[in-house]
Amino acid sequence: MKTPTLISSLLVLSAVNLTLMVPGGFIESRDFSHISPMILGAFNILLTALGMISFFLAYFVFRKQRWAFMASLLCSIGYFIVYVIDLAEIFPKSPSPMPTSLLSLEIFGTILSIPLSLYAFKAFDKEKTEGPSSPVGNTIYWIIAAAMIIGLGIIIFATKSAMTANT
Question: Where is the DUF8051 domain (predicted)?
């Protein structure tokens, strides 16, 4: 498998893995009602942006855009930090125990971030020129607008779900 295809695959896999852990979803059921809504909202914005940017980056990495390799490296570091601080129980703290399925997905996400960062760095270092560029039509603006609306919905849902104490 060629490096850009591998990086794109790791980005999509990382984003899907993160998506499975949205508070209020099937996996994340911990109670974060003691955390300020502003802090929780900001954290959910970060997580949503990380996942959505990864989906978009997968395309640009596949097109061999050099900047996308560096952005992929930054995303991989973001994934690593997010998972490690949760696994180390630094943030977000919860009185509820971490479900086993969530623990498994977070360990998987941490492991995924390592080859993602290594391959992204290698590709950035190797690719000295930009890949083929193509004109961007108006469709991309509609896709970005739709992604922003979906992202806002995810942030609101995740924040409200995390603020609700599970009894």
Answer: 6-130
pLDDT per position as a tens digit, 49-107: 999 999 999 999 998 989 999 999 999 999 999 999 999 999 999 999 999 999 999 99
How far is it, in rounded angstroms, from Cα 15 to Cα 165? Answer: 26
Helix runs in 63-138, H state only: 66-87, 100-126
Give yes or no for a contact between 64 and 131, defined as CB atoms under 8 angstroms apart.
Answer: yes
CA–CA separation, 56 vs 139, rounded Å? 14
Residue 131 has which token pair? 């890949």
Alpha-carbon radius of gyration of the chain: 17
Q: Residue 3: which of 132, 130, 109, 121 has the closest Cα?
A: 121
